[in-house]
Amino acid sequence: MEKLFSYGTLRSKEIQRQIFNRVLTGTADQVLGYKLKSLKIEEEFGMADYVVVIPSENPADVIHGVVFNVSASDLAKVDLFESNAYRRVQVTLHSGDIAWIYIEN
């Protein structure tokens, strides 16, 4: 199993059903040394507001989120779901777990 850290859209049960055909169970965690940045993405009906993670110069900056256990095929589904504004990288979470996270491309 892989670990996936979500700080935004992927925490939505509706989005999880759309991507995985099920609702995920997760655990609260944090990633340090990163911060959120506003992002506009063009969608079918216009521009939508999202956030994206970027590295921070302040190692004390923290992003709160949820870590999910997912399969490699689940990660491939998320790769297709996320726009080209994001890329997947591994980070060490506050808990010590290593997880995938989507950051600014």
UniProtKB/TrEMBL annotation:
<dbReference type="GO" id="GO:0016746">
    <property type="term" value="F:acyltransferase activity"/>
</dbReference>
<dbReference type="InterPro" id="IPR036568">
    <property type="entry name" value="GGCT-like_sf"/>
</dbReference>
<dbReference type="Pfam" id="PF06094">
    <property type="entry name" value="GGACT"/>
</dbReference>
<feature type="domain" description="Gamma-glutamylcyclotransferase AIG2-like">
    <location>
        <begin position="4"/>
        <end position="103"/>
    </location>
</feature>
<dbReference type="InterPro" id="IPR013024">
    <property type="entry name" value="GGCT-like"/>
</dbReference>
<protein>
    <submittedName>
        <fullName>Gamma-glutamylcyclotransferase family protein</fullName>
        <ecNumber>2.3.2.-</ecNumber>
    </submittedName>
</protein>
<keyword id="KW-0808">Transferase</keyword>
<dbReference type="InterPro" id="IPR009288">
    <property type="entry name" value="AIG2-like_dom"/>
</dbReference>
<keyword id="KW-0012">Acyltransferase</keyword>
